[in-house]
Predict the structure.
Amino acid sequence: MQHFLLLQKIAELIAQSNSQFYQHGIIRSVDAGQAFASVEPGSANELVGFFHQHLWQRLPRNTRRALLFQATNAVAPKPDADLVAGLPIIVAGTLRTASGLGSAARLCYDALRESGAPVYGIDLTHRLKQEADYPNFTFEDGAHLRGTGTLIVAVNAPLMPLAMLGIGRTIVRSKRVVGCWVWELPMMPAEWRIGERYVHEIWTPSRFVADAAQKIAADKPVHVVPYPVSTDSSSTEETGTRSGRPFTVLTLFNMASSFARKNPCASIAAFRRAFGDDENVHMIVKASNMSVFPEGANLIAKASEGARNITIVNTTMDKHEVAQLYRSADCLISLHRSEGFGLTIAEAMIHGLPVVATNWSGNVDFVDDTKGVPVPFTLVPARDPQGTYEHHDMMWAEADVDVAAAELRNLRDDPARRKRLGAQAAAFARSSWNSTAFSDQVAQILDLDLKSRSSVARRT
């Protein structure tokens, strides 16, 4: 028993050194706090400190990752088998982080709340060592709910054990667990198989991700559940007139989501090939977390060097500021190498913007030539200096920059086409990705009446 407790303590201390669960210098998970109290604080902390400094930090990155996943998997609570879905619903994830999965968790929570479902949240931002970019996001806390229900966990498969530790055994017990996963390559790495043990079913935002998930899902059902992007009311405001200013091209990316994958330099190159230094056109490059990968920031600066018609914006914006950014643009360009869904593409469509996007991966579900501008590509081996997508045995897309440049010129020169594509994009997006459509699909998959209050959760 003492060995098990020490293993759990080492796994947690290494994995989330800034967790909010502290008491007398001991990290306490929601359900294992009493057990940790039996471990002597001084000796355990000294042992873990020595292990971290003299052993852990000297191991190769991939070895550390593998050991971390194995250690957390050894001690994390696993759900009960063969459970049916019930109410209430708890959405767990990095609810306050400016990441794709953080956005997905917030959108899911807000859509279910808007539908009238009994929905709660559990924020794992600090547990998973993420930045609290949106500290003011509010939700009804479900961290103390036990009993039957449904737990939707918007955390990718390798980190499911750590997420389950953060949620706690008493909360996980008796609930059907849904894993909301997204991956941007055709196959999921071997380490993702760990997550399958912690879920009863898997939801993905696109067919591209679903195809990858099916290969590791064993007997677990996989459903395509697009994000309810238009849940945010600020995203459905009319874009209004854009006259009286230069034709404006927008591209957005998060450096923490892989600079190589987002490929913003290709979008900048397409703009410069299309328009050169023409001051009657303007490009806005909206970046975030540039400090995560300084080499990428240097490449952005080099790609835009000397271009007075390109503006680099590096800041985290709230939803109203992002909405205004979309309203200030005439089109969006995303020459990504891969997307699991394409959240910024979807948001641009809601705002009535025609989108010039690589015709590969998640966004092919909704970007076609009736409501956007698909860009041809060639497949190349995945190379990622940041490490996440460094898989030489897998391929991703290299968009044709010359074609993209020609399409940008066409959109600038043909306002009628621009307006037609934007209107059709908005009509599709607002009808497909609203809270009603999302909640109806969730109710169908889970076989639940989301407005029923017959199932009352107990509080610990």
Remarks:
- The longest strand covers residues 247-254.
- Residues 16-41, 235-241, 455-460 have pLDDT under 50 and may be disordered.
